[in-house]
């Protein structure tokens, strides 16, 4: 027996078998890597989709909150005009505007950032006070009527604009460099407390300078 030929044949067979095994191992490993890459890509796509859906939901909630706040202030002004002008007040429309704001605010509480919620909460309180004051106002009390008009036209108008700016900031739209949102929020809170005391002089003092708490 030619042991050399046997050795060569054995080596050849072993090499062939070994090469096949190595190839198979690399093929399996490659498939695993590809599968992992596909899973990672899919996971990233799902995360991106979730981020987009979250952003879209936030935009929708913010748009609703902004519209509801503006509509509520307008409804308070119209109700005050009707009541003080001797015209029948549309209570259903008046209350519907406030209810719409409550719904929008409740939705916003679930999705907004803590910072944006500070602004939304304060503006909601301001509008609630304006709503109740307009509902309870004695149209024959000229001082109280003047104070409420000032609060609705100046303070609530400013509050709605401040909310819009805070919303834009939370969505990544930077405010103007000279816009101190936190300072204006503090001023708005001060005016609200002053108005609750029903002291027009204090209201005007808190609204200084320029007689307006928050400029547009």
Describe the structure.
The protein is mainly α. It is built from 6 helices and no strands.
Task: Offer a concise description of the structure.
82% of the residues lie in helices and 0% in strands.
Span of the ends, CA to CA? 104 Å
* Sequence of secondary-structure elements: HHHHHH
Count up the helices: 6
Which of globular, elongated, flat, extended, rod-shaped describes the shape?
elongated
Oligomeric assembly: single chain
Radius of gyration: 33 Å
Strand content range: under 5%
Tell me the structural class.
mainly alpha
Profile the largest sheet.
none
Descriptive terms for the model:
0% strand; mainly alpha; elongated; disordered C terminus; 6 helices; 216 residues
Question: Secondary-structure map with pairings?
Answer:
Elements: H1 3-84, H2 91-111, H3 114-136, H4 142-170, H5 181-196, H6 200-206
């Amino acid at each position: 027996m030619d042991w050399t030929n046997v050795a060569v044949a054995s080596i050849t067979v072993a090499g062939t078998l070994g090469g096949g095994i190595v190839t198979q191992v690399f093929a399996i490993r490659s498939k695993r890597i590809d599968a992992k890459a596909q899973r990672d890509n899919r996971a990233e796509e799902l995360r991106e989709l979730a981020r987009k859906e979250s952003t879209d939901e936030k935009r929708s909630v913010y748009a609703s909150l902004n519209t509801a706040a503006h509509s509520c202030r307008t409804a308070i002004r119209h109700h005050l005009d009707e009541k003080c002008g001797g015209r029948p007040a549309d209570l259903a429309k008046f209350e519907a505007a406030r209810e719409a704001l409550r719904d929008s605010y409740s939705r916003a509480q679930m999705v907004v950032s803590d910072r944006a919620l500070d602004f939304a909460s304060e503006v909601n309180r301001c509008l609630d006070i304006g709503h109740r004051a307009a509902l309870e106002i004695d149209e024959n009390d000229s001082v109280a009527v003047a104070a409420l008009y000032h609060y609705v036209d100046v303070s609530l108008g400013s509050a709605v604009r401040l909310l819009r700016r805070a919303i834009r900031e939370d969505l990544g739209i930077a405010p103007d460099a000279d816009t101190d949102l936190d300072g204006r929020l503090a001023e708005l809170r001060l005016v609200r407390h002053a108005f609750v005391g029903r002291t027009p002089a204090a209201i005007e003092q808190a609204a200084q300078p320029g007689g307006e708490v928050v400029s547009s």
